[in-house]
Write a structure and sequence with these properties.
Length: 106
């Protein structure tokens, strides 16, 4: 796993009462994120993420696995896309605010 000091801790919540798992966000944008975890998710599967971004707390951010790969140390690197339009818009506003940009930036 690469140096994790710049990663954002994230809880991975799965359907059907499966216990939560943990990972780290390597990248986040309004469309999706890069996630690193030892927990295995299948391509196409869904998960709800919870994480903090700046001074905002996001929970139950609905996502789906677009792709995954496993490294030599056993970590999975995922590309996830966010499936809820309102949640994507809220993330966009928070990211714009963190960058000092007006919230209307598309």
């Amino acid at each position: 796993m690469p140096d994790s000091k710049d990663y954002i801790p994230a809880e991975i919540r799965l359907p059907h009462g499966v216990p939560s798992a943990w990972g780290r966000l390597a990248r986040v944008d309004p469309a999706g994120c890069g996630l690193v975890s030892r927990f295995e998710l299948k391509e196409g599967s869904g998960a709800a993420l919870a994480f903090e971004l700046g001074d905002e707390t996001f929970s139950d951010i609905m996502s789906r696995v677009r792709s995954r790969r496993r490294d030599a140390e056993g970590y999975f690197t995922y590309e996830l896309f966010f499936t809820n339009e309102l949640q994507r818009r809220n993330l966009q506003l928070t990211l714009a605010r963190m960058q000092g940009m007006p919230g209307d930036v598309v």
